[in-house]
Amino acid sequence: MIKLLHIENIAVVEKADIEFSDGLNVLTGETGAGKSIVIDALSAVTGGRTSREVIRTGADFASVTAVFLCSADLGRDSVANEQPDESLTAKPLHSQLCRVCETWFEQNGIEPDESGEVFITRKISADGKNVCRVNGAPVSATQLRELGAALLDIHGQNDGRKLLDESAHLSYLDAFGDLDDTLCEYRAAYKRLRDKKIEIDRLTMDEREKERRIDELSYHIEEIERAKLKPGEQDELSSRRELLLNASKLTEAVESAFESLHGSERTDGAVALINDAQGQLDRAARYSEGLRVLNERLLDLRYSAQDISDELRDFRTQLDFTPDELDELETRLDILRRITRKYGDETEALTYLERSKAELSDIEDGASKLIKLESELKKCVSDAVEVAGKLSEMRKIAAGALESRVMDELSHLNMPDVRFLVEFGSARGEYGLRDTGSDDVCFLMSSNAGEAPGRIGRIASGGELARIMLALKTVLSGGQDTGAMVFDEIDSGVSGIAAQRVGEKLAKLAQLRQVLCVTHLPQIAVMADSHFEIQKNVSKGRTYTHVNVLDFEGRKKEIARLSGGENVTATTLTSAAEQLAAAEKFKQRKGKAVKS
Question: Is the pLDDT of residue 211 over 60?
């Protein structure tokens, strides 16, 4: 659940703090007062899309901070009377966080708070930069969105319209049936089928394309093989070329250095002179401890000088080359440069060579390989069809349960005559399969007795769409850890008794998990456990929005305003008090039913 929301410099909100409670939290206010800003802030702090346009005029940044309490009781595989696992008491993380959040913290390497509270901050700067933090640790918007999905389930004003998108109906059914494991098994089988089909298609190319590809591969293979590549050869030859181009300068310098060390017929070199000096010190060192140390140092110098002299002699031999060597080297480098420009360095070119040989072999041996692949394809199709059939049967069982549950929920939402059906059809695709299985699924409804079921988009009104979506949300969230549920104007198109039923449904739902709801209807507002009024006023030419927690008297006035507009009278206040009292009795009655 969300405990605290702090909003700063977002749109007309300069600064606001909202402390939410358990149960149903209702936000009301005049149209345009800023109720949607609260929803936008909740979306932003849980990883939703946002931009610098939300920053209040004149401010350098906007920020949202939220404190969530993540309960370990949500999302765990437990039953009501199950004894707690004593091993969990030794691990604050396990004992405080729900499984989804626990996994998120472990995967992202962030230390959870021992209290089980999750602290999230998101700051949007005027330069477009976003800074997101969870428990003080920086995270990306994607990471925040993953965590946010476990903490908040936001149902916006347009979510009811998602029911018109029939491509989403199958995912609703799979979510209700908890069919993820079987769906993953099917998708793995379907991928094997598709991969095998692609391999066959590549081998069964038309003859003209096959001949063109054979010629192309043969040319590449011959060109690379003719080059007789060796890894690292180009670098080695480039170094040799640089040496030969500067051979005269190098020869002169090396000869001079070697003669200075080794000596010549006319003079002794440094090696001989150091050798003589060391011999003299060696004899003198018998009489002086200090000279013994110098003698050892001079001996090391003698060995070093001799080593350098030997290496110079060896290097000098490398400078001996024939007049044709440089031309041959240049020719070889030209070949290597041409090959590496086309195919990459020597290693990459050799890899391409092996790949081309394998493809050429596949094409040339295609007939026999094709027979084998087609046999394997049949097995892949059989496996995918089998898993698709199993998935389809599970969906049909889930569909029956979904129909019953949704109609039960709708009957409580003043739609007693509604019929909700899940219609199955065959998927359009090769082998009667696609990536979601062998089923096409469409939700149908009949909102009036005696009418044939039809597509929801053609039959349902806006108010009916809102109630069907609420029913689906209630049913789908029954076994899922979706955290707090947020409804932004779920009352769209609803009035009268239907509105009262929506309010009662939200109150009942709020006895199981925290619910936040933005509404314009008194029938919903009276069900609140905490009621917040969003007010907008103008001061010194600037617009400000404030969030106020209403006490009983404040709630009476707000309910009266929602019912009668600005014409608030003693009668409307009395009516508001009666509605609040009736709502309280309803909640107490339903609360006892839930506990029992």
Answer: yes
Number of helices and strands (H, E) in the chain? 20, 15
Give all strands of the β-sheet with 454-455 in edge-to-edge order: 419-426, 439-446, 454-455
- Report the C-alpha gap between 169 and 149 in whole angstroms: 20
Residue 84 has pLDDT above 60, yes or no: no
| pTM score | 0.59
pLDDT for 254 equals: 66
Please check whether residue 468 is in contact with residue 445, taking contact to mean a CB–CB distance below 8 angstroms. yes
More confident residue, 268 or 592: 268
As a whole number of angstroms, the distance between CA 44 and CA 47 comes to: 5
pLDDT of residue 155: 74
Report how far apart, in Å, the C-alpha atoms of 190 and of each of 176, 369, 433, 434, 454 are: 23, 22, 8, 8, 32
User: Which residues are within 8 A (CB) of 390 and not within 5 positions of it... i.e. 6 or more apart?
Assistant: 182
Better-scored residue on pLDDT, 258 or 36:
36
Which amino acid belongs to residue 297? R
Q: Which of 14, 264, 47 is nearest to 146 (CA)?
A: 47
Cα dihedral sign, 230-235-240-244: positive
Does residue 119 sit in helix, strand or coil? strand
**Which of 199-208, 242-251, 274-283: highest mean pLDDT?**
274-283
Tokens representing 267? 């003079």
Looking up tokens 């009395």, which residue turns up? 574
Listing DSSP states for 486-504 in one string gives EEESTTTT--HHHHHHHHH
273: buried, middle or exposed (CB in 10 Å: 19+, 13-18, 0-12)? middle
382-388 average pLDDT score: 95
Phi, psi of 199 (to 5 degrees): -65, -40
User: How far is it, in rounded angstroms, from Cα 121 to Cα 67?
Assistant: 9
Residue 552: its H or E element = helix 552-564
pLDDT tens-digit profile of 250-287? 666 666 676 777 767 677 777 778 887 877 888 887 87
Phi and psi at 221, nearest 5°, equal -60, -45
Q: For residue 354, how far is the Cα from the chain centroid?
A: 37
Contact present, 410 and 420 (Cβ < 8 Å): yes
Scanning 111-151, the segments in alpha helix (DSSP H) are 141-151
Greatest extent of the chain over all pairs of C-alpha atoms, in Å: 130
Write the DSSP symbol of residue 381: H
CA distances from 343 to 230, 311, 359 (A): 14, 39, 16
* DSSP letter string, 208-235: HHHHHHHHHHHHHHHHHHHHT--TTHHH
